[in-house]
Amino acid sequence: MNILLIEDDAKTADFIAKGFTQSGFTATAVTSGLEGLNQLSSGPFDIAVVDVMLPGLDGITLVRRARQAGCTTPVIFLSAKGSVEDKIMGLDAGGDDYLSKPFSFTELLARIQAMLRRTQNRNQPTTLAVADLSMDLISRKVTRGGKRIELQPQEFSLLEYLMRNTGRVVSRTMILENVWEYNFDPQTNIVETRLCRLREKVDKEFERKLIHTVRGFGYVLE
Q: Which residues span the domain enclosing 87?
């Protein structure tokens, strides 16, 4: 993932850029509004983190001009101004999120990941299918072999995540972060409990099992 960071404070920029690199992202950092506008309008970035108070061209004007030029890159504003009015101004200018300073890097990272999931979901199909298992994301209807399967909301979300990652082993931590996002107790056994119930509904009545445990790694649907 390629992130554009537009921040004029060297210490803050260095802190954020190092965090992105350690998280496995590619970060391009610029320090002025005009340079940031040029990068945002022309470069292929997955997301942009933009400080509001920038030299030459402030972040609000920068994003507004980028949107007028047709830029659709998701934007998170950073600002020491945290009033409701300031946040509304940032969102009205074309921002997708607004984080007040001081902030923790883990919160910034969580917001980026949530924003990317929303962006990816907009471009994904409305139906999923694996073997004779089918999921309609609009009607939230799940069937296997033509038979309707009734799922609780979290069971539906868990199955959706597994189906979107068909053939790929996903760890317990990945499931917690993507299905329950970051509002969870790391010591909870909720993943194991929900998977057990999901297997009962998806696999029990069928000879061919779709949900598998990969010992020492996680789970896979295939």
A: 2-122
Cβ–Cβ under 8 Å, residues 117 and 178: yes
Contact 194, 175 (CB under 8 A): no
Quick: pLDDT tens for 164-215. Answer: 899 999 888 888 877 875 555 556 688 888 999 999 999 999 999 999 999 9
CA angle 78, 79, 82 (to 5 degrees): 120
Tokens coding 6: 């537009």
This prediction's pTM: 0.56
Looking at the structure, do residues 21 and 53 belong to the same domain, yes or no?
Answer: yes
CATH classification at residue 93: 3.40.50.2300
Here the tokens at position 36 are: 């940031």
Residue that the structure tokens 């607004």 belong to:
98
